[in-house]
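As a warm-up, study this chain.
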Amino acid sequence: MDFINDSFNIQHLPKAEEVQHTPIDKSYLTVLRIEWAISSSILIIIAIILTFFIKPIQEPIWISLIIVGWLLLTVGYAFFQTKAFSQKAYALRDKDVIYKSGWIVQKTRTCPFNRIQHSSVSTGFIERKYGLATLILYTAGTDDADLQIPGLKEVDAYAMKEWITQKIIHEDYRGT
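Now compare it with the structure written out below.
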């Protein structure tokens, strides 16, 4: 048997930019903002406690630096979070699922159905209040999730999970 390794013209590849992505639900930005508000509140409470117990940082200059630092961190994170949110989107295709995210560092992750071992749906306390969930896909060879799509309507996340499960089952029985 002869070894054959034909070259492939890159012009024949499908164009990734032509894939129609569905943006995640806009109310997920509210969830992210609430979670950040909780986190930044905890940070300022810790700073206040440290200021109360540590004499050297009770000076006005240190207090000012802590407040300015906290404000810059809070506002900066909220700004970047909002910018990055607009890039979060997913696409379900016949053989895979794609998730893209990121504003400065953009990532596109593709998970083929024939690699998925199982899937799950997760909802946090704040997500549940907005009827949102995260679809989690696990593939062979990792303990962690290979792909997570946050900010889906809960009913859509469960429907996608069921659809992917059926795809996996039918692929397994066909032997492909």
